[in-house]
Amino acid sequence: MTSFYHSTRSSADPVTSKQAILAGIAPDGGLYVTDALGGTTLALEGVCDQTFHETARLVLGTLLPDFSAEELASCVEGAYGPQWDAASVCPVTPLGDDWLLELYHGPTCAFKDVALQMLPRLMSAARSGAGDRRVMIVTATSGDTGKAALEGFSGVAGTGVTVFYPEGKVSDVQRLQMVTQDGDNVAVCAVRGTFDDCQGEVKRIFADRALAERLDGRGIVLSSANSINVGRLAPQVTYYFDSYAQLVRAGAAKLGDEVTFCVPTGNFGDVLAGYFARRMGLPVRRLVVASNANDVLTDFLTTGTYDRRREFHKTISPSMDILVSSNLERLLYYASDGDCELVSSLMADLAEKGAYTVPERVMDEIRSVFSCGRASDDETRATIRSTWDELGVLIDPHTAVAKHVLDALPADGSARVCLSTASPYKFSADVLAALGEKVEGMSGFACMDALERLTGTVAPSQLSRLRERAELHDDVCDRAGMGAFVEAACERVLG
Ligand SMILES: *Cc1c(COP(=O)(O)O)cnc(C)c1O
Asked: Ligand 1 pocket: which of 142, 144, 463 to mutate (most atoms <8 Å of CB)?
């Protein structure tokens, strides 16, 4: 029971959820999965009477069974405390005939806070009693993950965090969020290159044996806060149950009614958490995967072939600009009834050829739950504008991708929830432009102010107060310098 998780590529060598969280990825390159998912139905009636915090304890207790109830209670208390500017943590609000699940009320104004406020606490609880090696978290970011990881891990004892972002390729506000981060245990560095350069080099650093040995000699181990970590996936399951409970309490659904969720998707972590919720007993009619111009998932769900050999598009929903959706590997495992051999061979095809084709029986299972759709940048802008003009709701470009896709689906009588993954003020310039305003030559803060004036809404103070904060991190390096930066950061912040 406690050795609960094993790799998607082999059921040998099971580990506890604590071990899975500390390791991040399985030694064979697979992702950790549990076979207990189907056998653990949560009592819905109870969930509908519960607070977000109670539901979080229940969900985490089910998915991470070797943590004690006391450990989880204290993790939940700390992760979803006063750093959230909504008392209910992830509120559900009306969106015309549909509903908006607002996941952006955390400290960095993006949905990644739901998981990254929790992961450091789970890691600390997992480490206590497991020796006293210190951990350096190393992360590459295209914008949102970096700040959420800095905020989550800042000040955590025995842990450091290093973030690399591509110089000139994140929004003004996203850059400021990172370079103004305080805390004695954080390091931030811009890289002359793309996000893929950052990500590729971080992967190489994790595989660098000589570096690992040098760090080991100083009692330090490298780890990742990537969205493939079970400790990031599990907390996201909570808001599917909690939002369902909110719909029932609002009278928008009756207990037991099926609900459809539409999810702006990049790495497939968020929508996979919805699939977990469904397997744990939540009445989910459809999970809708919404993509931007990087529509590799739309093509996959339509054709059964995943093909990453395509042009990469830079869009106004940058957190979804991704060609390899890592968490899809977990869906392949579950949809094939745990066929590790099949998953291994598909992943080998992806590595060798850049593409794989999934057998029809597995695609049938996937298509029985998942729908899909895409939105171009123009469609995304038009949706931001119409949602504001017609419904008076201001949404960010990622949320607008999902809203566009949801609007294109035929109504099926079920209550429909659009997941809202970031505050519109994180992308003020693009949102302002979508509303028809001129933004050329304006700074991020000028756009923020203009957006407030135009809409009469208020920017979250976490973002508007960035202008008062000092820029603390000005390091820039080439891809080749990232390894040395990590080693120096270990010396500087972990001693
Ligand atoms: C990360 C992110 C996404 C994509 O989520 P995945 O779990 O990677 O599919 C969508 N929107 C925003 C704002 C994000 O930061």
From this structure: 144
